[in-house]
Task: structure prediction
Amino acid sequence: MGDLSFRDIYSATEHEVFKIASFGERIFHRRYFNASVSPRYRYNVRTVQAKSDIVVLLAEVFLDAKFFCNVLRVEYRAARLIEAARSHGRILGEQIQCWLRLVLEDGSQEIPPTMVKLTLDGTIQAYQVELWETLEARPTCTHDMKILNQMGRHGPITARREVQAALHDFERLRGLEIAFCEDDRDSRTGLRIDEPAWDNNYERSVQIPRSPDPDAPENTEFLRNYYVPFQRGLYLDAAQQLPIRYRNAMMDESNPERRADNILEIRWLLQRQLGGRGIYLQEVTVPPRAVEGAHLYVGAEALYYVIEGEGEAYLGEHDDPATSSYPTVHRDVLGVGPRSCKAVPLRPGITVYARSGAIQGLANTADHPLRLVRFGFHPE
Result:
């Protein structure tokens, strides 16, 4: 690996398309990374992962066309942290702090967490840092002075002993736990901040099937950090995933359809594994005559695809003009009260899509289970 030439990778005809590659609304090119201000350095990007306003890149850095080391680049647009700091009457400065911990494939080796500083980069309007596997140049090849100016404990190019071994082999990496906080000094006054504001994915949770009891609190685990997955593929068998049971889901206490046996089963197939914010994939089973209460989507979206059984879905009366010919019914909407809805039939192959502002509910009207796949997300 040490003699691998960047030219062997970068000059191959099949890799021409990656010299300028679109990622979302951004463009990555050879001048993107910190060390690329010197023509002696080149990067080979192995993966790009995003979560909320976090972008994480794993790459190889080449010095004088020969492989030098692996690098982890973190970018953060700080939307939440800006608001958290403003709530204390402060604004973010040129640097913020980042807590991170790499997760290995089998979890057998616990990688200690480390703190690094991120520096504001005006060209991308984000805080960023590059964690290199090592900063030590080879005896016969010294670093460029332009790059030495960026290197250091709190520089935009840095290294940490805690992650050195983990970065050495990308194939073992499965994810990154990460959180952000203000710098320890107020950017305007220079005074020390004793309790800096954090963005650590607050009030997020995942569902883990620990108890078969409906609404068991131990099935909810609250998160303390963001999780950015590196695993490139995932093969799942829904039958091997235990369901979590919910009684009278999406219903107020006053809803007349509440009853002790109104229990839904949900298999949470994907949660933290997906990119973006608040994205999940579920298999939902609605027993005969059971109901999921109507609820309003605000700042979120959901897509339902029926794979087995029959029933009804309830959409807001004016949410989809194509449903105007279906019966109008009144449904108790969670936290809102009675609203006029359209009752549309559910059967295998039917898709129901609810955008922000839409009403969504469903009921099993048959004597056999209704099963569907639900994909939910918050638009970025």
Q: What stands out?
A: The longest strand covers residues 41-51. Residues 6-199 form one domain. The chain has two domains: 6-199, 234-378.
